Amino acid sequence: MSDKREREKRREERLQKESEAQSQERRKRLVQLSAGIGLLALVVVVAAIVVSQNQGGGGGGDATSLEDVGLVASELRGVPQQGMVLGEPSARVTVLEFGDLQCPVCKAYSEEVVPQLIEGPVSAGEAKLEFRNYTIIGAQSVPAGAAAIAAGQQSRAWNYIELFYRNQGEEGSGYVTPEFMTAIARGAGVPDLQRWNEARKSKAVLAEVARSTKEATARFEFEGTPSFAVEGPKGTEALGTPGSAEAIEEAIRKVG
Predict the structure, then answer these.
(1) Which CATH number is 36-255 given?
(2) Where exactly are the structural domains of the chain?
(3) Residue 60: what pLDDT?
């Protein structure tokens, strides 16, 4: 066998191993998801995950052509934002979402579960929703999460998060570039892009990404994304990955 053919053979074997490793990781996350939710909810959420992964492999991650800019703005219009918190600051209950902006399961939840919370208990002033980074997908998850925090410093965190999810590319594909993140920030309506660009690279913001990731594992012992916890006057409920908005709403009533 020639040297060229031998190199091609080794390259094909390497690509096959990488593909198998990625598939095994996706299956692992689905198993973790199924452990905590009912069968019917699992079917709905997994279907959304499959769709989101297919979209991510196709048109996602494109800095030149963002989707759903108007939709995200419409969904969040009129809902107060401060930092990483969405909802009335005086709300008695806080729903913590630990997510990774590269996570396709998180994308599915942002489209299927989170909107119900925003339209329901958040808009009613019963609870506020706080996003905390739990960066487990890969190295690019850190700058993505930092960019969301920087957007939050200008009261646009949730616009950034939701718009990022709707334009999410395939995990680990390299789509999280400065150009892509800037396009998301612009689409999210971040007023001062220069200030945002400086903040997302700051030591303080990067340290916050690391802190919340550690909190997810050390305090709540979460093992996958997205994971939810609900805090209120009557205590804290660590839900992990619930199968529906109704499960989160039940926890809100329990601790409120």
Answers:
(1) 3.40.30.10
(2) 36-255
(3) 87
